[in-house]
Amino acid sequence: MKKLSETKQILEFINNKEKMVVMLAPSFLVDFSYPEIIGKLKRLGFDYVVEVSAGAIETNKQLKSLLKLNPNKKYISSACPGIVQLIKSNHPELVDFLAPIDTPMMATAKIVQKKYPSHKKVFIGPCLMKKIEAQENSELDILVLTYKEIAEVFRIKKIGEKKQDSSCSFDIVGLETRLYPISGGLAQSSGIVKALTDPEWDVISGKNLVERMIRKFPNNPEIKILDILFCDGGCINGPGIISKDSLDSHRKKIINHWMNK
To answer: Do 119 and 19 touch, CB atoms closer than 8 A?
Structure first.
């Protein structure tokens, strides 16, 4: 039997009135207004709307514990599935450097699974590679859609904004990690920038820079952690994003949301 597209799957969930939780990636402000997006998602049929930045808090905890447990080891952050797939495919000799921790999506799914065990989990974000991550962690049973795909679902189901949406709020929040989608967001929110010396950590994004940096990584005796994202500028520049605004405009939206927490 041919597998349904993610858009068709979510429409089937909606039409069947399934119990659903949406896990919204912290880059959502690039394409959607807050808190109106929460109201639109709930009117679409989701019972709960959860910030994936809540899972990022757990990701940071795991990373800090890893660095404390293994102070002499070197790690490449594994929060970005694009980086994970790049290393697995093109640089298998570096796989052992990938930090063995939950990504924010995985950590959020585990939180949701515990709190809302009877609900289907739907992740919405800017990244196509999250679909592969979900397949590789099939036990968490996550349906992944991009911002472009959920916008199409809104169009199909005729979900526009309503005045009542402005009073909505997240059911699970993650205030301190809302900078995660920006290049350097992990290092900033996890406290790595304060816990390690400058030569011991680095931030990098964009395919070309990433390729150069990871080749040098094993032979750099000082660096302990690479905060690394595949898309230039971070997840605010992912392929599933609708906005054609500048990268700087996207970055400012995320920073303003974080500052107004």
So the answer is: yes
